[in-house]
């Protein structure tokens, strides 16, 4: 054991000391020829056989070191092999030599050497571990497992052996063996910080490789191991970071936040930790706190464009479009080629009723990405909002043409075809609108807005009433308390002549929808059919007050007044 602890120079000095003491005036030679007196080397030098073997071992080792330093490892190995023959208890050298053999794929010599040394040193855990490693490298997994188990039994803190066993049992998909191994390791009374840190890593690694085992393993042991490591004096920030991450993964967001704060107190200039802290706050639905952390990162790293994007997302979710737009724009200043930022900004500007600003964004977007179909799509939405329906149809047509070459992840959505269909219907092209609404529902059969729009359009025209009823009923099922859908349902029932059913639905629609001239008009039509003109007249007057310029309501009101006058 002495040899691997001393430097090469120290070993040479030790050899000289031993030999000089042994010689006592009549130095032995390798041929046995000595000085004045005849007899054995032991008789001539006064050395015991054990001392003699030790001296021989020292000489062989010194020669091996010299050869290795000269770059001749093959010659050195021969001398090291002889050292082990003289001193079978030199386990450190035996392990090193065995590893050299194994590296050369000479498993025969590696196994032979380590097995012999292991017999001479049956209680050496490291020796058992390396013998197991050589077996494993030689595809003798079962023998390797035996040696790894023996190494772990001799030294429960031998986590190298534990790691090999875990790998073996994971490959065999043997959950019981893994659980038993980890339980045994977890219950050891070992007061070494690094032991618990690494054991925590093992627990985490197993769950990463086998997430399906999560229900049968105690995930809390990961953090418990890290906590023990820190309690035993570890000041490893990596362990603190892993512990904080684990708290976050386990849903203990407050502990995670405390952990990240502690780390930041040690190292304020650690943007990755701040980002993790922000992510933790986001997961805890503490968006304001996340924003505060990200804003602090921006102060320290004003060119971190990704942070501006995170802030844009958070401000969007908090309903603060102006701040969201500002952050997305700042990100574009730093990194202009971010097409998704243009989409986010345009969408936010439209939601905030800022069409003129949106048009400016679209101009820049088109300059950067002239074939992005979303540019004419958003332009079409602006035309729709301004009731420029023919222009909207033209923009959507252009968008559909460009979208043919768009990647799958940004292909037109059901919402695109809904908007396109609505524009066509408003522009008077109902046949095209039907085609587009059907495409919308083909992409998303649960798009209840499209179900209602198409159903109501047919009901208003008095065509395809059975299919219209089915579509509107589907919309109501998907959104039961939507007053507009209930109105559509009452209207199509009225068109089908099912007036009593229509009355029930339209009275409910009036309750659900804020005062609306169209809904009042529908209910008035049903009431007239059911012989209740006075109530209908009241509703039409209210409708006329809401929309004085609504010609349809005005005509109905005048007709009903005339009829009432004639009756009276």
Give a structural overview.
The radius of gyration is 42 Å and the shape is elongated. It has 31 helices and no strands. It starts with 7 loop residues before the first helix and ends with a helix. The chain is mostly helical and 568 residues long. Mean pLDDT is 87; it is low at 1-42. The relative contact order is 0.02.
Provide the descriptors you would attach to this structure in a database record.
single chain; 568 residues; mainly alpha; 75% helix; elongated; disordered N terminus
What percentage of residues falls in helices of 4 or more residues?
A: over 70%
Number of helices: 31
Distance between the termini: 123 Å
Taking the sheet with the most strands, its summary is: none
Rounded to an integer in angstroms, the radius of gyration calculated over CA atoms is 42 Å
Which structural class do the helices and strands define? Answer: mainly alpha
As residue ranges, the low-confidence spans are 1-42
Overall mean pLDDT: 87
- General form: elongated
Instruction: Report the sheet-strand fraction.
Output: under 5%
Number of separate strands? 0
Secondary structure blueprint with pairings:
Blueprint: H1 8-23, H2 41-45, H3 49-69, H4 73-86, H5 91-103, H6 107-120, H7 125-137, H8 141-154, H9 159-171, H10 175-186, H11 193-209, H12 220-231, H13 237-249, H14 253-266, H15 271-283, H16 287-300, H17 305-317, H18 321-334, H19 339-351, H20 355-368, H21 374-385, H22 389-403, H23 414-426, H24 430-443, H25 448-461, H26 465-478, H27 483-495, H28 499-512, H29 517-529, H30 533-546, H31 551-567
Helix pairs in contact: 1-3, 3-4, 4-5, 5-6, 5-7, 6-7, 7-8, 8-9, 9-10, 9-11, 11-12, 12-13, 13-14, 14-15, 15-16, 16-17, 17-18, 18-19, 19-20, 19-21, 20-21, 21-22, 21-23, 22-23, 23-24, 24-25, 25-26, 25-27, 26-27, 27-28, 27-29, 28-29, 29-30, 30-31
């Amino acid at each position: 054991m002495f040899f691997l602890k001393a430097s090469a120079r120290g070993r040479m000095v030790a050899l000289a000391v031993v030999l000089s003491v042994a010689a006592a005036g009549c130095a032995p030679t390798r041929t046995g020829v000595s000085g004045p007196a005849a007899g054995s080397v032991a008789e001539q030098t006064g050395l015991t056989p054990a001392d003699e073997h030790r001296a021989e071992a020292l000489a062989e080792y010194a020669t091996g070191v010299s050869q290795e330093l000269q770059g001749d490892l093959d010659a050195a190995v021969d001398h090291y092999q002889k050292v082990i023959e003289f001193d079978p208890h030199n386990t450190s050298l035996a392990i090193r030599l065995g590893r050299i053999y194994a590296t050369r794929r000479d498993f025969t010599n590696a196994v032979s050497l380590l097995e012999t040394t292991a017999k001479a040193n049956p209680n050496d855990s490291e020796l058992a571990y390396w013998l197991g490693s050589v077996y494993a490298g030689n595809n003798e997994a079962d023998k390797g497992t035996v040696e790894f188990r023996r190494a772990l039994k001799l030294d429960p803190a031998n986590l190298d052996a534990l790691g090999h066993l875990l790998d073996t049992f994971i490959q065999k998909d043997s959950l019981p063996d893994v659980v038993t191994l980890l339980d045994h390791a977890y219950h050891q009374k070992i007061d070494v910080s690094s032991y618990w840190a690494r054991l925590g890593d093992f627990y985490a690694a197993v769950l990463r490789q086998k997430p399906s085992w999560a229900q049968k393993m105690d995930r809390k042991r990961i953090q418990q191991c890290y906590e023990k490591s820190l309690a035993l004096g570890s000041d490893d920030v990596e362990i603190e970071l892993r512990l904080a991450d684990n708290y976050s993964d386990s849903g203990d967001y407050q502990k995670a936040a405390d952990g990240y704060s502690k780390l930041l107190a040690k190292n304020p200039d650690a943007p990755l930790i701040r980002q993790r802290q922000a992510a933790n706050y986001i997961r805890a639905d503490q968006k304001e706190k996340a924003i505060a952390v990200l804003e602090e990162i921006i102060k320290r790293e004003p060119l971190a464009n990704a942070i501006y994007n995170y802030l844009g997302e958070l401000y969007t979710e908090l309903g603060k479009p102006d701040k969201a737009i500002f952050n997305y724009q700042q990100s574009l200043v730093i990194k202009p080629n971010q097409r998704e930022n243009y989409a986010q900004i345009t969408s936010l500007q439209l939601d905030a009723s800022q069409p003129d600003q949106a048009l400016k964004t679209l101009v820049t977007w088109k300059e950067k990405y002239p074939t992005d179909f979303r540019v004419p799509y958003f332009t079409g939405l602006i035309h729709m909002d301004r009731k420029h329906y023919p222009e909207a149809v033209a923009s959507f047509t252009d968008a559909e043409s460009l979208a043919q070459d768009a990647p799958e992840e940004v292909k037109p959505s059901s919402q695109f075809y809904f908007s396109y269909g609505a524009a066509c219907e408003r522009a008077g092209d109902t046949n095209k609108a039907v085609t587009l609404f059907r495409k919308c529902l083909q992409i998303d059969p649960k798009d209840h807005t499209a179900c209602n729009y198409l159903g109501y359009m047919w009901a208003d025209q008095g065509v395809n009433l059975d299919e219209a009823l089915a579509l509107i009923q589907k919309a109501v099922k998907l959104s039961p308390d939507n007053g507009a859908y209930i109105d559509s349902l009452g209207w199509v029932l009225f068109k089908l002549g099912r007036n009593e059913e229509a009355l029930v639905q339209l009275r409910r629609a009036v309750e659900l929808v804020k005062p609306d001239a169209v809904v009042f008009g529908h209910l008035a039509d049903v009431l007239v059919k059911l012989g209740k003109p006075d109530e209908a007249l009241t509703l039409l007057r209210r409708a006329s007050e809401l929309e004085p310029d609504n010609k349809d309501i005005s005509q109905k009101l005048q007709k009903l007044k005339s009829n009432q006058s004639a009756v009276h």
